[in-house]
Amino acid sequence: MAVLYLAERISPRPHTVKSPDQYRIQRLLLAFCALDKRRQDEFLGAVNRYLYASPRQRERLRQGWVRHVIDADAGAASSEVDAGTQMGPVR
Fold it and tell me: Which sign, positive or negative, has the C-alpha torsion 52, 53, 59, 60?
């Protein structure tokens, strides 16, 4: 509910968005606003580590994030499959 309220309050009208990247950034900022203080601090810490990292360290960070997202997506997909099989066959 709060994210919808924020979206209405701070998002520009669709015709003012100049690029898909700006839209993605706005969505990221809205998601950041919805985080509690501790998670906001964790996110900002990760951004700072990335910004001050060497190119090689940045690549390692990106690879770690990609692996984490892939693993999380695979876990979510397998839990959906598990939930579907626990209900039994559909008749």
Answer: negative
> How many Cα atoms within 13 Å fall on the side-chain side of residue 69?
6
As a three-state string, the secondary structure of 18-34 is CCHHHHHHHHHHHHHHH
Q: Angle at the Cα of 11 (from 41 to 49), degrees rounded to 5?
A: 25
Cα-atom radius of gyration of the chain, to the nearest Å?
18
* Most distant CA atoms of the chain, gap in Å: 57
Q: Which of 69, 1, 81, 52 is nearest to 44 (CA)?
A: 52
Tens of pLDDT, residue by residue, the chain (91 residues): 455 555 555 555 555 657 888 889 999 999 999 999 999 999 999 999 999 999 999 999 999 999 999 999 998 887 776 666 555 544 4
CB 34 within 8 A of CB 3: yes
